[in-house]
Amino acid sequence: MAHDDHDHNHHDHEHSELSDTQLRVRALETVLTEKGYIDPKALDAIVEAYETRIGPRNGAAVVAKAWTDPAFKKALLDDASKAVATLGHVSRVGDHLIAVENTPKTHNMIVCTLCSCYPWEILGLPPIWYKSAPYRSRAVKDPRGVLADFGVALPKGTDIRVWDSTAETRFMVLPMRPAGTEGWSEEKLADLVTRDSMIGTGLPKQPGAR
Question: Annotated catalytic sites, by residue?
């Protein structure tokens, strides 16, 4: 278990997205450029697009709208694929997106025990640890312990529900809106939404946090 703990600590919240992207780019560039398949600059552009434009900012915009628009929130929880499509974000053919809402009583986490199913268009690049066997198995057996590894401490009265993605069904978490954000614009709220908060391994940033 020591390796697992080290892995979680290495990919902490502050550095996870940057280091994940750097590692992914480095590995892809090495393989693809050696084989002459792709120009590294073109690959950088693709990764940058998923990381900043196509990726988690799309999901953050969806969450922010749900926080401010009760009708959209209801539509999102009723049929996330349809609701997300109304904002111009269309998932791959065959993918069915389901949104699950965090509340004071229930915290949701997403895993994929048999694969690495992940709604790239909404959440961007999947974190490296998301695909790891230790994360997937421990998240199912001891979700509270995994959350503790990520620095997330939930009240004892909060139940943790783990959702298992499939090739056809993807999940995203609708995190709870942070206190102290009354009257904020959707754009400002979206800045608080992290990728980890949309898969349940983290929480949104707090107002005023760096």
Answer: 112, 115-117
